[in-house]
Amino acid sequence: MYQKELPPYKFFDLPNANYGASNFDAVLDESGATVGLSMFTGYSWNEKRALSLAIVDPSVEIGSQVQVLWGEPDGGTAKSSVEPHRQYAANADVSPVPYSEVVRQTYTDGGWRKKAE
Question: Is the pTM here over 0.70, yes or no?
Answer without folding.
Answer: yes
